[in-house]
Amino acid sequence: MHVNILTTQAPPKTILFVEDEALIALVEHTKLQQHGFHVITADNGAAAVEIALNTPQLDLILMNINLGSGIDGTEAARQILQQREVPIVFISSYTEQEIIEKTNTIPFYGYVVRNVGQTGLFPAITMALKLFEAQQRLKELEEALREHEARDRRCVERSPEMSPALDGRG
Q1: CATH no. for residue 56?
Q2: Is there a contact between 131 and 139 (Cβ–Cβ < 8 Å)?
Q3: Residue 39 has pLDDT above 80, yes or no
């Protein structure tokens, strides 16, 4: 008898790539797709917020900090993170301290200097995805522990042997 074992492969991760320079966006979009990612692009901060808040299957955001006119990448990230949890990796050509400090109040998962090339970008993406998944799993475990503790507390409170001790009569 021949058994056909089907291997299930995880669907590609969806990345929102936010870049105001059309040529850079096209090149990076292609590279990300070649690495197996599904890529959505936005060319400004407002579009990034709109897409991020209306794309539930979004796995990660690659956010350029300087997006020309309108809101910059840090403000777009703030607006997105106020309404949903998603890992954000900032990308910038700038290494000046004032630019980097703009990200200090935002929970982000990486900062890649654009000139680093692919050797820095794809490991940063991989690490950000793994870290975010680990944090989500930790939150799930903490919630399960809280539910378990609450259930145990209710059982103890309802127990006839414990009732006098809990209300001070025992």
Answers
A1: 3.40.50.2300
A2: no
A3: yes
